[in-house]
Amino acid sequence: MQTIKPIKLSTGKTSAKEKLTSAEMGKLWATYTGNSMAKCVISYYLQHVDDNDIKTLLENALKLCEEFMSISKEIFEKDNFPIPKGFSEEDVNLGAPRLFEDEFYVHYLKYASKAGMSIYNVGLPLIFRKDVVEFFTYCMHSTMTLMEQIKEILMNKGFIIKPPIIPVPEKVEFVHQDFLNGFFGHVRPLHALEIAHFYDNIENNVTSKALIMAFAQVAKDKKIRELFEKGRDLTSKNIEGYMQKLSDQGLPSPSYLDHLVSDSTFAPFSDKLMLFHKMDMFSMKIRAFGNSVAVNGRHDVAMIYSKSFMKISLFVEEAAKLMIEKGWMEQPPRAVDRKNLAAN
Fold first, then answer.
1. What is the pLDDT of residues 58-109, one digit of tens each?
2. 39, 85, 122, 178 - which has most CB atoms within 10 Å?
3. DSSP letters for 195-262
4. Do 137 and 38 share a structural domain?
5. Which residue range forms the structural domain that includes residue 206?
6. How many CB atoms are closer than 10 A to CB 173?
């Protein structure tokens, strides 16, 4: 059934001959760079996978990475835009020993798919050129399809529990004066959206913790290894705080995934890839905190996310400084530096 009537306008204003806008450049750059990293990671996973269903899932994900990179590259070349360096074969050792169990790959793909969907979801309202709109629409739909396959495997193989069940309301109600209380007086139970975001943050962080724990085991550079260890401990404390809030309501949480990491100390990835990956994942946590605070109403919950936000921000800054120090941070497209233009 057609619910939205089509609008017939000339598409000349949004033809592929139009220059790329800053939003289009930025989102294409992030898509290419992120998928070049994911391609390296998934290619390594495929060297050590026993479960046929999970192998097919990884193959599907790898195919999407390659396709997204290829289409991004076509658009870049059409606009004489330099192809980002990103990550390549030099950043992955396909012959490295197994570092993760098969189950971890599925949790990882869910986290990575969330990250991709956030790029496409934020980008689509800002993008106008027709070929870029079509590309990001395809990226979103394809990633959503992959997400459904991921969730099906997670549930059918018993790898995850669904978000907590709460009672159906008996009637429509309006909140009282104590709605915002979190430390003093009567503290109301968590509402559905607060529970959903605690669940989401726990799910993200148990995956992040297992990955950074693995990276800390194999990182070659001492500074990078110590930063990973710091990030691992920080993530662990955040998880404990979020789990406690659900536990206080008698609600279950997703489980830790640490046991899915082997004891290998042989690095399958370059320090550059691992540092970028964790900086990117921790940046995603900041966005997740913003979404969580936006639907929260309790002061104590806001305080938890505020503390997490500050600590995670410091980690991202420290990681960025290390990336810059090593000469690894690639410059995204930027505006003209008009203050420092040479006089004609």
1. 999 999 999 999 999 999 999 999 999 999 999 999 999 999 999 999 999 9
2. 39
3. HHHHHHHHHHHHHHHHHHHHHHHH--SHHHHHHHHHHHHHHHHHHHHHHHHHHHTT---PPP-GGGB-
4. yes
5. 178-326
6. 7
